[in-house]
Amino acid sequence: MLLAILALVAGLALLVWSADKFVDGAAATAGYAGMPPLLIGMVVVGFGTSAPEMVVSAIAALDGNPALAIGNGYGSNITNIALIIGLVALISPIAVNSQVVRKELPILMLITLFAGWQLYDGYLSRADAWGLLAVFFAVMGWSIWQGMRNAKDDYSAQSDAEFSETNLSLKQALFWLVVGLVLLVVASRLVVFGAVFIAQSLGVSDLVIGLTVVAIGTSLPELAASLIAIKKGEHDLALGNVIGSNLFNTLAVVGIAAAIKPMSLDSVVLSRDWALMTGLTAALFIMGYGYKKQGRINRLHGALLLMVYIGYSGYLVSTVIL
Q: What is the pairing mode between strands 94-96 and 295-297?
């Protein structure tokens, strides 16, 4: 048990560090290749911060632990909104200025409903997986097109400032791109081994472990990125990180895992976890969209989101103890 705990802790720490190095290397490499800063922010960094969820869920599916894979994907979405947005808003209220972000909020809501429709029969087939991945590539294409059209948008300006310069040489960028990716796989192996062993030893379901410990660990890059963005006053980047990550998780993370290993799911995934994820997404949509006025997520909203997260986590822990 001690070895499994050490593997889980070390794996999560290595996961966060390697994801950061992978993002740095990928962003710098994309810059040297001539990719515009906005696209680096939306595509490269968006993929990079969701890479831990992708690799962990893919390895969990390969190892025959689909519940851990789905728990990691949906648990990360719940963590991103309730914990990360809640914490960030409590520190500094988030003003939603960007048209890119406001246009992506309805898309995220529709995709969440689409995911629920797929879960209704309690089974995610390869056809479902390809459907998720097809929507993912369509949304990415649309987001890139929208981002390029709104060149003077606040999100675009913040992306330009964030990603237009790099301190890495091309050789260093390629080094960290490769090393970061390799370490991501190694770290994910440690996380999956530790999480599954602990779950089996304590009689806890892989789903609960995925929804809690693994989801928090794989969401740490989004937390760090959002806290740094809000410290710089880049509110749209802070919110954009979470929206982009949730799009990746719902479509690509779950889609890749189901494509590797079609999975039967307990009905509680739909009635409890997807339902909460949908409610939080709807709340984010209402707060961020700001009908006829600027969208704003204030400190009260942040406190409420944190209370929801604490309550949900407490409930999951109580089901384990009781």
A: antiparallel
List 263's β-bridge partners, or say none: 124
pLDDT per residue over 200-217, tens digit each?
A: 787 778 888 888 888 887
Q: Are 211 and 314 in contact (CB under 8 A)?
A: no
**Of 19-28, 126-135, 249-258, minimum mean pLDDT range:** 19-28
Cα separation, 15 vs 256, in Å, equals: 19
Share of the chain above pLDDT 70, in %: 84
Full-model pTM: 0.82
At residue 209, the pLDDT reads 83
DSSP calls for 64-117 = T-HHHHHHHHHHHHHIIIIIIIHHHHHHSPEEE--HHHHHHHHHHHHHHHHHHH
Quote the tokens at residue 259: 């494509």
Report CA torsion sign: 207, 212, 218, 222.
Answer: positive
The CA distance from 83 to 307, in Å, is: 9
Q: Which CATH number fits domain 47-162+194-321: 3.30.70.100, 1.20.1420.30, 1.20.1250.20, 3.30.420.10?
A: 1.20.1420.30
Which candidate, 226, 188, 184, 249, places its Cα nearest to that of 26? 184
SS3 content of the chain, % helix, strand, coil (to 5): 85, 5, 15
